[in-house]
């Protein structure tokens, strides 16, 4: 689908196409209402600003679609396909990196009671591990804000991919 096709979709069809990017109604409504877009960058900017900041409830809802970093998403949903594609850049993780990610994921989940979420696209496994370690020192409030920002970054990238 290209930008012109997206701009011409009915509201319901546009909503359906956006939901796998970020399952937050307020965000979806904001992006749909901002159409038509003159450029993909304008659409991406709408994706970045339409839900900023995400509420705690919106973050929790959106998080239900994200697997652990370094693990394959289960199922055949659009969200699972997008997540698998985004994590593909991590390549085949060697045993040491896989073990450190698994240990980091477990520690993060123990600390914050949620899956560690990070925009994987464009990041190496070492960068992701460094971010995981850095974020372990966050307060609950600061970490929730970072998770929200990561969700918005992922949504913007997914929308850009949808329009490519």
Indicate the CATH architecture: Orthogonal Bundle
Main sheet: strands, sense, barrel? none
The CATH superfamily appears as Oxo-4-hydroxy-4-carboxy-5-ureidoimidazoline decarboxylase
Order of helices and strands: HHHHHHHHH
Would you report the number of β strands?
Answer: 0
Helix amount, in percent? 55-70%
Describe this structure in words.
The protein is an all-alpha fold. The protein has one domain: UraD-like. 63% of the residues lie in helices and 0% in strands. α2 crosses α3, α4 packs antiparallel against α9 and α7 runs parallel beside α8. The chain is elongated, with a radius of gyration of 16 Å. The termini are close together. The model has no long low-confidence stretch (mean pLDDT 89). This is 2-oxo-4-hydroxy-4-carboxy-5-ureidoimidazoline decarboxylase. Keywords: Decarboxylase, Lyase, Purine metabolism. Pfam families: OHCU_decarbox (PF09349).
List descriptors:
164 residues, mainly alpha, UraD-like, 0% strand, lyase, EC 4.1.1.97
């Amino acid at each position: 689908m290209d930008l012109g096709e997206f701009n011409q979709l009915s509201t319901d069809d546009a909503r359906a196409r956006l939901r796998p990017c970020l399952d937050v109604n307020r965000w979806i409504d904001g992006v749909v209402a901002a159409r038509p877009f003159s450029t993909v960058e304008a659409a991406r900017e709408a994706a970045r600003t339409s839900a900023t900041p995400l509420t705690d409830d919106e973050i929790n809802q959106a998080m239900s679609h994200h697997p652990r970093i370094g693990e394959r998403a289960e199922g055949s949903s659009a969200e699972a396909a997008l997540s698998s594609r985004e994590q593909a850049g991590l390549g085949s993780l060697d045993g040491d990196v896989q073990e450190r990610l698994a240990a980091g994921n477990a520690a993060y989940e123990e600390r914050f009671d949620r899956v560690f979420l990070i925009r994987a696209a464009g990041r190496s496994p070492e960068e992701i591990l460094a971010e995981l370690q850095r974020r372990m020192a966050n307060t609950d409030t600061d970490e929730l804000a970072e998770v929200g920002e990561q969700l918005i970054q992922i949504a913007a990238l997914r929308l850009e991919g949808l329009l490519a």
